[in-house]
Specification:
The complex is a heterodimer of chains A (319) and B (566).
Chain A (H helix, E strand, L loop, with lengths): L18 H5 L10 H36 L1 H7 L5 H26 L3 H31 L18 H9 L26 H4 L15 H9 L26 H33 L9 H25 L3
Chain B lengths: L25 H5 L4 H29 L12 H37 L7 H23 L13 H4 L5 H28 L12 H33 L12 H34 L7 H14 L15 H13 L1 H15 L8 H24 L1 H7 L3 H31 L5 H27 L14 H31 L41 E4 L4 E4 L1 H9 L4
Antiparallel strand pairs in B: 1-2
Helix pairs in contact in B: 2-3, 2-4, 2-16, 3-6, 3-7, 3-8, 3-14, 4-6, 6-7, 7-8, 7-9, 8-9, 8-11, 8-12, 8-14, 9-11, 12-14, 12-15, 14-15, 15-16
Classes of the chains: A mainly alpha (319), B mainly alpha (566).
Chain lengths: 319, 566
């Protein structure tokens, strides 16, 4: 792009007029200087990030409401998530954020080749994240660790054999726990086989609110094994066969798939964006005089990263 | 001290170029990046939707003429679809995009003194998102319609067997993003594209209102978007987050929905308030009273709008403490609203009022908004709300605010800027007559409903007890009168395109920048950067018979310059 003059335009010069438009091919007609255009684009992107925060915000609120209502579900079901895979994915995303930040810096300093390398590395990070995510999801779906009623259906084939055997022994659920509006619930017994107090994996507070439980009930609860605090606890291979599984455990997986799924869609969108940046970068569009798309694209990639930084501990690291 | 440039060409035929004639052909419109053309396209699209929503309204009112079935074939289920469609179309396709999308797009950059909005391509994208959303909404009709009410309350919306629920949810989701991108565009435009001299407190009040609206659009709409997606997922794969039989919480849905939809009420009313500030000051030829108070009350309303959503849920099992707090904060919204109303009244006081069509709409707004606002206080009061909840009183209240205020403000603004947009003057007599017919029809329709509601007639009902019939008949007759008024308005405006007198640059005596450029404006708005002054200082303007509009009188300007207002 030898036609681009070599003046450093990112600095604020006060010269206005149509001369600027002749000098900078990417300067839109209603902006006066490249810096003016850059500032506007950046403000626009920050506003978009605000909408993204609120977009995810509603799901975080749903998470909080469910977790306050069913703390035992979250502390139990979290053990079915693979912390190693999640941790690796966290590292992959943080590294990709680093390469993205470096790409922005290289664009600003006219090092186009280095910028392209960094953009490709960021893209590879996104691909890596999605591949690991794919293995995590497919493993869980295989074991029917999913949303809704399928969670209570034993998996097909050998995997579900023990569960089916276990379920055939389980007593019928008390009718009161079923939805009276639903004449034929597909949910199988474990939804509420055990009284809620016994099913809880959470140790009751040593000094809870007065009147919460009689001392006798409390003593009864404390005798129960608490799987999540037991050092010998390993997650049961088959969740349906596990008598310690609290009621409504499917809700953990519902919100898990909603939030990580929405995040995954954002990663895919980020991959499209990165591909576009690489394509334009390879055509020599970016330089110290025009790096707005790299910069605002970087902002988007960082928020995708940031959302995962919250999702990882909220789902994988509950104890 | 004025912004009007007297040297503008007077000979209308000699005008070289305007945005309408700048380029020709379908693609020059479909792919345009010109904010003025996008505004006109929004206007046409929104008015077409308004016609559709209005037809559903008339069908509803006709069905309610007698208890039981009135129109052959309209069963209770069909009736449910009618009111749902009426609500969804009017809210999501008409009122929310109307003022920002149509009038805001056209006027905002010119008023600001900018060449365009900050992101013209995104602006066109918003319009096509609107089109896509509208297509999905119509598609839902083809796929069996939907009868959830425009609020999509769970568990009904996740269990109803009507086939159009998922398409319309996608439609509203897309419309939401159209609204978000418009809001983002306007915020950045106001922040970054103000020309030298256009300080925050020199901006016309319409821009303050649009800016406050844009903040709400950007911050509230994403929550609705994700909530609707959760319902889609719930319907498709039954995740159970809102389903009580699976441990979920339907009240959580209501919180999410109203966290958007209450601010959305202000997305509807704030731009109308901005229009009224312009109309009252310009057509009373008097400097707006309390400029800063009106400007900042828009921001105050935007902030309050996020803190009152719980007043839709007083009977949904919220805790008494929450109810009390939401009730208290809801009352406090009355303060910035009343600040505006009293400032408008004071502007009119001793003003030199021209009773033009836009002014009649502004005066209608004052009456209707006051009634709508004050009846809101009945509903914000906890104990009266328990009685009035889900009755026609609520229906009447929000029609006074959403239609009597937001839409009347929109139509008033349309009449105000019509000469600027089209370059044609409409018939004042017909326009005023139509305004009167609409005003009378509106009050006959909806004032009756206050009484109906306080007597216990529940909303959304297909059938009713015979003692309510006389009020339903009155209300229905009112709706026919109103429909007649809108037909008159449509005739008045459309006929002006063919036989209207050519519009002068400044037909009303406005002082903001859009009246500086010709009618219709040239393609790039301003040949040279306009000078910015106090847009509500009208002292240097006088009526010019030859121009048939207002022009700057140099003698008056010199006199005004000696006595600055500030």
């Amino acid at each position: 792009m030898s036609s681009i003059p070599s003046t450093h335009a990112a600095g604020h010069d006060d010269h206005h007029g149509h001369g600027e438009h002749a000098k900078y091919p990417f300067l839109a007609h209603h902006f006066e200087t490249p810096a003016h255009q850059f500032d506007s684009a950046k403000l626009g992107m920050w506003l978009f990030l605000a909408t993204e925060v609120l977009f995810f915000g509603a799901l975080f609120v749903a998470y909080a409401v469910l977790r306050v209502r069913f703390p035992e579900v979250f502390s139990y079901a979290s053990h079915y998530l693979d912390t190693l895979m999640g941790g690796v994915n966290t590292c992959v995303l943080i590294l990709s954020s680093l390469t993205m930040a470096m790409a922005v810096r290289f664009a600003q300093t006219d090092r186009t080749q280095a910028m392209l390398v960094c953009l490709v590395l960021t893209f590879m990070g996104a691909v890596g994240f999605m591949v690991i995510k794919y293995f995590e999801y497919s493993h869980k779906i295989h074991e029917h660790l999913v949303w809704g009623k399928t969670f209570y259906v034993p998996p097909e084939g050998e995997l579900g054999q023990a569960e089916r055997a276990e379920l055939s022994k389980a007593p019928e659920p008390p009718p009161a726990t079923l939805n009276p509006l639903d004449p034929a619930p597909a949910i199988v017994p474990t939804l509420a086989v055990l009284p809620a107090v016994e099913a809880s994996a959470i140790k009751p507070a040593s000094r809870g609110p007065v009147g919460l439980a009689t001392p006798r009930e409390q003593a009864q609860v404390e005798r129960l094994p608490v799987p999540s605090e037991d050092p010998a606890f390993t997650k049961p291979a088959l969740h349906l066969a596990d008598p310690a599984m609290p009621a409504n455990t499917h809700l953990f997986f519902a919100i898990y798939y909603c939030m990580t799924g929405l995040h995954g869609i954002h990663v895919l969108a980020g991959m499209v964006m990165l591909a576009w940046l690489i394509w334009r970068g390879a055509r020599g569009h970016f330089s110290s005089k025009y790096f707005t798309p790299v910069d605002v694209g970087g902002l988007y990639w960082h928020i995708v990263d940031l959302v995962w930084i919250f999702l990882f501990p909220l789902f994988y690291l509950i104890h | 001290m004025t912004t009007i440039d007297a040297s503008r060409p007077i000979d209308l035929a000699a005008r070289p170029d305007n945005y309408l004639t700048h380029s020709r052909g379908f693609l020059s419109w479909a792919l345009t990046l010109d904010h003025k053309r996008i505004g006109v396209m929004y206007l046409v699209a929104v008015l077409a939707s308004f016609l559709l929503g209005g037809i559903f309204a008339l069908l509803l009112r006709t069905e309610l003429l007698t208890p039981g079935q009135t129109i052959p074939g309209v069963t209770a289920d069909v009736y449910n679809q009618f009111f749902t469609l009426h609500g969804a179309i009017m809210v999501f396709l008409v009122i929310i995009p109307s003022i920002p999308g149509a009038l805001g797009n056209f006027v905002l950059p010119i008023m600001l003194g900018a060449k365009d909005v900050a992101f013209p391509r995104l602006n066109l994208g918003s319009f096509y998102l609107w089109i896509a959303g509208a297509i999905f909404t119509l598609l839902s009709l083809a796929m069996g319609g939907f009868d959830t009410g425009w609020t999509f309350y769970t568990p009904y919306s996740t269990t109803t067997s009507t086939g159009g629920v998922i398409p319309v949810l996608f439609g509203v989701f897309i419309l939401g993003f159209s609204s978000i991108f418009t809001g983002m565009n306007f915020i950045v435009t106001v922040h970054k594209l103000r020309p030298p001299g256009m300080t925050w407190f020199r901006m016309p009040l319409f821009l303050w209102a649009i800016y406050a609206t844009a903040i709400i659009q950007v911050l509230a709409t994403p929550v609705l978007a994700i909530t609707l997606m959760l319902i889609v997922v719930e319907r498709l794969v039954n995740i159970g987050i809102f389903d009580p039989s699976m441990g979920g919480d339907p009240v959580l849905y209501q919180h999410f929905f109203w966290f958007y939809s209450h601010p959305a009420v202000y997305i509807m009313i704030l731009p109308a308030m901005g229009i009224i500030s312009e109309l009252i000051s310009v057509h009373a030829h008097r400097h707006i009273f309390g400029y800063r108070f009106i400007a900042l009350s828009s921001i105050a309303i935007a902030i309050f709008s996020f803190l009152v959503w719980g007043h839709h849920m007083f009977t949904s099992g919220q805790s008494p403490l929450m109810n009390t707090l939401f009730s208290l904060i809801s009352f406090s919204v009355a303060i910035p609203s009343a600040v505006k109303v009293f400032n408008w009244l004071t502007t009119l006081y001793k003003g030199n009022i021209s009773l033009t069509t836009p002014m009649w709409y502004a005066l209608s707004f004052l009456v209707l908004f006051t009634i709508g606002g004050l009846t809101g206080l009945h509903l914000a009061t906890l104990n009266t709300d328990v009685h009035l909840h889900d009755t026609y009183f609520v229906v009447a209240h929000f029609h006074y605010v959403m239609m009597g205020s937001a839409l009347i403000g929109m139509i008033g603004g349309m009449h105000h800027w019509w000469p600027k947009m089209t370059g044609r003057m409409y018939s004042e007599k017909l326009g005023t007559a139509a305004c009167f017919v609409i005003f009378i029809g509106f009050n006959v329709t909806f004032f009756t409903q206050f009484y109906l509601g306080s007597q216990g007639m529940p909303r959304r009902y297909y059938d009713y007890l015979p003692e309510y019939q006389v009020y339903h008949v009155i209300s229905t007759i009112g709706s026919y009168v109103m429909a007649l008024g809108f037909v008159m308005t449509a005739y008045c405006l459309i006929s002006s395109l063919f036989s209207g007198r050519k519009a002068p640059a400044n037909p009303w005596g406005g002082g903001s920048l859009e009246w500086q450029c010709t009618s219709p404006p040239p393609h790039d708005n301003f040949a040279t950067q306009p000078s910015v002054g106090d847009c509500y200082d009208f002292r240097s303007l006088r009526w010019d018979e030859k121009e048939q509009g207002y022009v700057v009188d140099p003698a008056l300007a010199a006199e005004a310059a000696k006595h600055p207002l500030h």
